[in-house]
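REQUEST FORM: STRUCTURE PREDICTION
Request ID: SP-0412
Submitted by: Lab K.M.
Chain count: 1
Length (residues): 141
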Amino acid sequence: MTPLKQSISLVIEGPGGLLLVRRPEDDEDLPGLWGLPAASLDHDESEEDAVRRAGRTKLGVEVRPLRPLGEAVGERPAYRIRMRDWAAEIVSGRPAVPQPGAGTQYDELRWGDAAELLPAARAGSLCCRVLLESRGLGWET
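STATUS: Completed
RESULT:
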């Protein structure tokens, strides 16, 4: 049976819109695309703890998980992935990328609009698809 990888993404709203991050050009899944900060759960880690960890390790801030917004399951060559989007708020710090550490680190961040996630959704980003669907925005071409 194909292993299941559980992941979360952060949906952080600010005065300038959604917090968007750009993946590096050498990213194997979504090179150079704008999306949401995300992380896979560690063994025995709760989703809420993964949200807090992602805030620290991906953005350099402390975040508070608010509520899940939706989820999707997809197939990858070596595993199945379940992605759940989480509304979160920054409680301290100012987001910055890249952060030192393992895993995907992002090249840029900015505040933007959900519609800017369409290219990543069309390229297979589950977190972008979940967010767009939760806002009634279609992503399929």
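NOTES: The mean pLDDT is 93.
Reviewed by: T.R.
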